[in-house]
Amino acid sequence: MPFFVALISSPLKTHFKFPIRLLNLSIINRSLTSLVSENNVRSLNSAIREFSVSGLSEKVLDIYVTLRLSGFKPDNFTFPFVLKACGHLNTLKDGQAVHTHILKVGFETDVYVANSLIDMYAKCECLEEAENVFDKMPERNLTSYYSLVSGYKRNGFVYEALELCDFMRILGLKHDRVGLKIIFPLCALSQCLKLGESIHAYAIASNLSSDLGVKTAILDMYAKCGMLEAAREIFDGILVKDVVVWNAMMSGYLGTKKPEKVLQLLREMCLERVPLSLVTVLLVLQACADLAALNQGKFTHGHIIKLGLESNAKVEGLLIDMYSKCGSLNSASKVFNSISGGNVNSWSAMISGLGMHGYGRASLMVFFGMMKRNIEPDWVTFLCILASSSHCGLVKEGEKFFDYMSRGFGIEPRMEHYTCMVDLLGRAGHIEEALRFIQGMPIEADASVWGAFLGGCKIHGKTDEGQSLEREIVNLGPRTGDCYVLLSSFNAEKGNWDGVMKTRGLMRERTVKKTPGCSLIQVNG
Fold first, then answer.
1. 330: closest CA among 309, 353, 313, 301?
2. Which of 267, 391, 408, 489 can bridge 404 by disulfide, Cβ–Cβ 3.0-4.6 Å?
3. Which CA distances in Å does 456 have to 319, 450, 463?
4. pLDDT per residue over 356-390, tens digit each?
């Protein structure tokens, strides 16, 4: 009987707590068998490392299971690769089983093993265990701190991550290139521009700002903090730009509502013969959708086919969305129908596209078709179906889907869902019902919800209802001009020019600008 088959069928299996996986015997070959029989730890680690570097995480765990059954004794270099595989696959139970093994063989105090444990638990969304491992470490290095900082960031605890970075500063630890690439994105996420600027100064003083990865992180931070001139200055100063640098600048323009700049950068990329990546394609498709640039969208679609990315779930969804927003519903349908089975992104995009073109009933049928194929909707899907119901005046259907979202799928409504519901009721003229809905919300309504309510009042001439809530809405301090413009128009319709001046004064005081109206015309493609 072959060596590995004998191991799997041996009585040891019944006493081994690690989940037994279906082994691919063509991967685990004879050379590995001989290494086990020789107990050649160093060579076995090299073999496992090759699988890990190749991204074959399942195979890493398969080998680990087999080695354990063979009585092989791993060392402190074996476990980091195995834990990395657990984190990559998000298999917490497997990671916990490996942790138990580590405790048995006494490697829990090894700094490299402990760092890998922190990273694994963070990737498996088990931060409490990651913190426990960190707290129990007798010795820590920079990687220990960065592993936990990255874990906080990955799980949405941005300020906790920044606090830990500040604690590192108090301890006198100096950031290296790896740390800077973690910290600058944190500054961007938290919009802490001053902190980002001070760390930028540190990077320059420490001679770390010449690293391309660090430069890209700084560029991205400035762009996401709205400092496009500073970001562009860094971008222009990079003589040899890789695709990540181009993507960072594109992302900055897209995030500040400058999609035309994204397409301009795309043309420059093509002239410099920089190969497009998946991220580039996603950014360009979104820019085409925002500009309703159909010809550019078709050109990008051609690039996607050449790159072999047309079957990517995110690309499929954005292609449908782009064609829908460019007015080519037929092209959107063709993309959707070409997808075998589909995924939640593509179905949600098709629901949205049909809704924005006034085919509300058809969008509902697409949703039910999605259910028949056992594709579970997410919060975005329900947002699309509610928006579709709102645009098409399907009040009863929208109310049923809003209820179905939480009762049927356990999805808690977000502010966007509440806004859609108020918009649905307001557009249909159910102003009093919309107000009762807002008052019954379990969370405080923000400016977007009140903006939707005021929009409904405006459509149906219910200026008194809108004006009666003026003080409450103004106290929220909305940062967009939509609410103020609507309130101002209500006062103007009533001839209350003092009220108009007061509202405009508030806009100046709070530096709120009216969103300018615009029309897009595509000339010569």
1. 353
2. 408
3. 32, 10, 10
4. 999 999 999 999 999 999 999 999 999 999 999 99
| Structural domain includes residue 349 | yes
Cα dist from 182 to 129, 155, 217, whole Å:
21, 14, 8
DSSP letter (8 states) at residue 443 = S
Residues 388 and 478 in one domain: no
Structural domain including 318 reads 311-398
**Orientation of helix 212-224 relative to helix 228-237, angle to 10°:** 160
Reference 66, options 9, 8, 6; nearest CA is 8
Instruction: Quote the tokens at residue 464.
Output: 């008194």
Q: Does residue 334 sit within a domain?
A: yes
| Confidence (pTM) | 0.78
End-to-end CA distance of the chain, in Å? Answer: 68
Same domain, 376 and 439: no
Query: Does residue 231 belong to any structural domain of this protein?
Result: no
Same domain, 53 and 100: yes
Count CB neighbours of 84 within 10 A.
18
Domain count for the chain: 3
Rg of the chain over all Cα atoms, to the nearest angstrom? 28
The reply to whether 493 and 369 lie within a common domain is: no
Domain assignment present for residue 224? The answer is no
Boundary-marking domain end, from 146, 173, 200:
173
Interval 270-315: pLDDT, tens: 999 999 999 999 999 999 999 999 999 999 999 999 999 988 989 9
Whole-angstrom distance, CA of residue 484 vs CA of residue 514: 8
Residues 6+ apart with CB under 8 A from 426: 434, 452, 453, 455, 456, 457, 459, 460
Q: Among residues 137, 156, 173, which one ends one of the domains?
A: 173
Of the candidates 474, 453, 476, the one whose C-alpha atom is nearest the C-alpha of residue 463 is 453
